[in-house]
Amino acid sequence: MDLLFAYQQWPYAETFRISRSAQANSELFTVYLRDGGLVGRGECGLLPQYGQGREDVEAALIAAAPLLAEGATRARIAAEIANSSARNALDSALWDLECRRAGQDIWQLVGVPRRAEIEVDLTISVNPTAKMRDDALAAFGRGFRILKLKAGQDEVLERVEAIAAACPSARLIVDANEAWDIDTLNRLAEPLRALGVELIEQPLHHKADDALAGYGGAIPLCADESCSSIADLDRLSRLYQAINIKLDKVGGLTPGLELQAAAHARGLKVMLGCSGPTSLGAAPAYVLGTLCDYVDLDGPALLLDDRAQPMAYEQGKLLCFDSGLWGG
Asked: Which residues are annotated as active site (predicted)?
């Protein structure tokens, strides 16, 4: 197999702001695996929260090229390539190529029933209260009934209250992206519960979340930055009630499916998340999303443009991808 890849910046429709950063573009790598006349494609983003950048992903892909030339399997790539984002793009491309070799679609190969659509949330970036309220109203008007509200340290209750009043029937998730400490979490938990928030995502930094042993609130907590592999589950199951699986964090669809099954076996809820993918990156995530309790797969909806044969959103549902895009 021959490996080709390209680094690209895909602009967001609006600047995407969370507690620790603001991005005008989603930085992505597109991977192509060529085997004779067949080509498999994959995509990955960057993980700056773990200190990983463009150069790290590029170096990992270069290191993978001779392995793939020898016919490396998904298992070998998982064992020998450390960078999880690069592993995701390669895992996805290998699945896509295997589908084309076999003349079967991804649903047949992984043994997961195809779903025509999945209900997804839409993320509301950190902004002044009026802007967040207006963005939430616009999302609600497009049919999204689950809203993920990004939060920092300031005006959290004011912003959530404004959105809850504007969209009273919406389901609300608050994602702090590591911005709080345990005192802030305990102070906000009961007021947020009263406003209808049903899940709080990654309130504390992933290197300081043992403090969650002191959490006394009623809202379940979801581990995002703290969860990157099955090895994390024993510790996380004592601190959280849910985990967020992103294919870039865990290294692709293959380990993602394993992590989902292991988390559910421990009684944890599972969210399928994403890191600004186009539809090419969202397609393999969609497969995993059919098995999850929450689906935060709104990346393509937040971008200014998308791939050919893009996935579509209708009334808060993400429609299944066409096999011409990926996985067929």
From this structure: 150, 246
